[in-house]
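Exercise 7 asks you to align residues with tokens for two separate proteins.
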Amino acid sequence: MKKRIKLIVNPESGQRRIDDYLPKILYILSKNEMIVDLNIAENDQTVIDEVQNIDNIDAVLVSGGDGTVNLVINELVKKNIPIGIIPTGTTNVLSMELKLPMNPFEAAYYIAKKATPKYYDVGKFRNKYFGLMVSYGFDAHTISKVDNNLKQIIGRYAYALAGFSSIFTYNPEPVYIDLFNGEPLKKGYFVIVGNASFYGGKYSITPLAKMDDGLLDICIFKRKGVLKSISYIMDILKGTHIDSEDVEYFQVSKVRLITKQTPGQVDGDLANHSKEHVDIEVCPKAIQILT
């Protein structure tokens, strides 16, 4: 029996031209018993509207980056419909995390021939959901400095350039962390709340995180300063940061972050700073992903 698929494409994701990949993706899906309802997303609201209004669909496929996938996840948490990922974004960390094919044509074939839906956890940040992480501190500040035009040309290296220029000028504010375990508040200057282990590519800041364990992993970098920041980066690249005496690591189901001015980000998009604290919790097995 043929399956009815909603395919949402973000033409602005990554560095690929839509004409270079979309015709072949459609060919692969249609040749493998899939009836495709195609939507080329004009903006974020287009994506949201399309998913909200789906009817009689077996799965929603997303051709784009982690930001577009996050938009779809937020809508599908409310529906019992699986999501499939065809990576065409800048990095596609969620695909890496789930060990899915990173080539869009291989991903389309894998979804059509091999993938099955499996339930995974998501995190909840205020009234929004995330698959990867929430963080407050240096990385969110870096995201705010990325030149989107440059990002279209050099991809993820635009983040590296923004980070390098920011490391000498960024003045971090403290973030206080309530683990809801009766202990005094923790204090850090860069805090990651991870539902997944990978971060920004094949680097892992919350290496013990799993998307099906019912927990969030909290990594707290307790010191500030240019030299300490460089030291943290080197330790992250080596995978030894959680062994540092200046880093604390916890696994919890809920956490509260308290800060006045520290910038935050959710799955790569800047967070709203309308409140001085935010509660983040895990929603076990809340989304189906084709893996």
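Second protein for Exercise 7:
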Amino acid sequence: MAQTNNPPGLNLIRAEDLKSDLYTFADARFRGRSAGTIDELKASIWLSDQFRAIGLKPSGDDGTFFQFFTLLRKQIANNSTIEINNTPLQLWKDVAVSQMANIHLDAPIVYLGNAANIDTNAIDVNHKVVAVEANSKGINLNLSLPTWRYNRYIFANYGLPLLRRGAVAIIFIADEEAEKAWADATENFKRGSYDINGEANQNLSIRSPQSISALSPVIWLHANAKETLMNNTATIKMNLVVSEYLYPSVNIIGMIEGTDSKLKSEYVLYSGHSDAHGVRNIIKGDSIYYGADDNGSVDVAMLANARAFVKHPSKRSVLFVIHGAEERGLLGSKYFSEHPTVPIEKIVAVLNGDMIGRNNTDSAAILGYKPPHRNSFDLVNMALDANKEGPNFILDTTWDEVTHIEGWYFRSDHLPYARLGIPAIMYTSLLHRDYHTPQDNAENINYPKLKKMAEWMYRTGWKAANSAKRPATDKDFKLER
């Protein structure tokens, strides 16, 4: 169809700018931009410099582009010790701590056998240290990051019921799947847990580091430990120390003022996140998790959109918020939604992006498209019209279904805003084999695809920022969790 509804700044979204910006932002010098590190802060400064050069108005705290918040990190201290039968185990090599607790324990170990054969309702585990052999039966690992998630599923299926029945500690013995996952899982365990200091994370994401607040530790041993434990004569001495640290993270916020005397007090908010996963275990010869697609692709698309809106302002004001610490549990978006630098009731729409630079050039997806995830029929229609007028992607809507195994709607920065009833959608080109690996680098981005995704976000934002009426929130919107 003829493109008769092109917004005026479309020609300012250029593949060469996206590529140049992303090669800089996803460079090794930022070391994967892990939240709560100097690397995240350095990358945030670079983003703020781009905001300034483009001509955005600083809209953070104290006349800056920055809104700092404090992360509370809890981590197993290096002086923690674990012994089985008086033999010291090397932390992270011989034994891994998946759930932390400050505890000093000297106790016998009760071996319960293979997890698949345990009836947690028929055994007495109160005040006992129990050992369980992991079993993958009934666990669907046909999803992204199975090596990151396997230990969580084992804990949810078998460990949590035992803790609820009074176990004081759980030892999981690795099966074949857990052994394959050891390197990735241990990297996650080492990092511990993160939250906003002074606030309780409301389990916004399935990536929340611990599903319960418990005093009972959970540890993992390699498969060869089974022989030592199965005769029910083994003992454990455990002295775990949980260290707590305060780290800064930051949201980067810029604004373009609207042209309409009344509507400029309302805002369309573009959303992305700055952090990736830092330096971790080596995969294919590299240990820097560059985060080019996740989420550098969105950040540079936001820069391109900002150039378009600066040159051709809309009636409403446009707010660009690149959130910190998304990978730690949506912490930056949670913080901004609770401490907005503009009146929260004046934010009319949130256009969030998460991974928009990979896979087939002609396909894409939006989340928040169908109930119960849809919270604004009006905003979804704007996005669909924008797609038809421009990129004309074939849209995969299955990822927005409640039954989809990834549950991705709950894993990105639109969520805190949607929970407040603000119309919100998420743009994505979906997952790929390089997700959360060092191979998510600038070289592997599909730049024609990224350009089309950036144009789609711009077209939608232009509609939302110029419509006579703000997008309405669906009546009785309520998420399934």
